[in-house]
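Case study 2.
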Amino acid sequence: MQGAWNKDHGKADIYIDGELDRTIDCYYWLANQEGYPFAYLYHNVTLPEGDHELRLVVTGDKNEKATDSKITINGAIVYEKK
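Prediction:
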């Protein structure tokens, strides 16, 4: 999943097939530089072959340094095993 890291971004839970896989933190601020507008926020290369459901839930939680709890998603890439 692609999206943004930035100083005003927060956390989201990622569910695969109804089960929590992990929580992502999209906060980024280093040396007064804006974050990355096209960062890789999440990946999972261990899923068995077949159909899967991915669900992203914005928690409203944030890193203590973050100014907000936004989440930006720009796209997703799905690979097929050949």
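The CA atoms of residues 15 and 37 lie 23 Å apart.
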